[in-house]
Amino acid sequence: MSLIEIKDLNIHYPIRSGFFNRITDYVYAVDGINFDIEEGETYGLIGESGSGKSTTGKAIVGLEKVTSGQILYNGQDVTNRHERKKIKYNKDVQMIFQDSMSSLNPRKRIEDIIAEPIRNFESMTDTEERDRVKELLDIVGMPSDSIYKYPHEFSGGQRQRIGVARAVATHPKLIVADEPVSALDLSVQAQVLNFMKQIQKEFNISYLFISHDLGVVKHMCRNLAIMHRGRLVEVGTREDIYNNPQHIYTKRLLAAIPKVNPSGREADKAHRREVEREFQDHQDKWYDKDGKVFPLQQITATHSVALPPDEVTQIKSEVG
Ligand SMILES: Nc1ncnc2c1ncn2[C@@H]1O[C@H](COP(=O)(O)OP(=O)(O)OP(=O)(O)O)[C@@H](O)[C@H]1O
């Protein structure tokens, strides 16, 4: 049994218009997706802006209402609020946001920000609570006198560490990390990713790591799902996605990773142009007649791709 199982998840937002404010259509933000997250693993959910990643992450922590489908936690249905309450799911599943400046209340001191989730789920004396907050700050490498300060007194990287301290305060089993390093400089990104890994090892936490950048998550994720137009276009292990991508959308995301070696930049640009041309010239290969991504089909035990059936048959014969 997996820690989290997402089963045929749909989140559709109504579009209303006209004098009577009638529903005229829907935004299919999440359109029938399935994936599982194992205990202690980092699962990557990757896609461009608007693909439905954040909506999925918010639904898992209970911040977004599910239209249909199921979210299972250790086999128990937690799709609805009252089910989540029964098993302390809200304590076990936490979230880290991209924008630490707006996700940390600017009027509250760090002590209160980190203590807030503890107050929701545990009863402690003031001294016990303060000791716990200092311990959490120590875990994320921040000095204990940070408790007296406010979010604006820290750098972006430090604020993200504070966000992680708050997320781990309740001893969670899963953290949904929504673009946790996108707003940070490259060197600070590496620091934050490293201590997220350390904390994961120490406390056996699973992450759902949401990102638009396949470069950032390369050394974090064991398994990845590539999301586009509310659906999954490719799912596989790190090796499947980085070494043997099959969908043009995955190839585009990989081509967008900047290369470190300057001598390869021209070849890199040419490769990007080639991938883009293939994408533009063969739209019928990537979408069905309604412009939707095809259903996912398995090509190996670990690797699935959303392509027309004849394409999938051909890929299978090549890899088999
Ligand atoms: N409350 C809402 N009402 C209507 N449409 C929404 C709502 N929230 C999100 N959407 C739409 O759902 C789609 C998916 O949004 P979502 O934020 O999940 O994408 P994303 O992949 O996380 O992108 P980003 O990284 O830019 O947040 C988008 O088209 C967005 O405009």
TrEMBL record:
Chief location category: membrane
Recorded topology in the membrane: Peripheral membrane protein
Subcellular location: Cell membrane
GO CC, any one term: plasma membrane
Keyword Nucleotide-binding: yes
Keyword Iron: no
Alphabetized CDD domains for the sequence: ABC_NikE_OppD_transporters
An MF annotation (GO) of this entry: ATP hydrolysis activity
Family per record: Belongs to the ABC transporter superfamily.
Protein name: Peptide ABC transporter ATP-binding protein
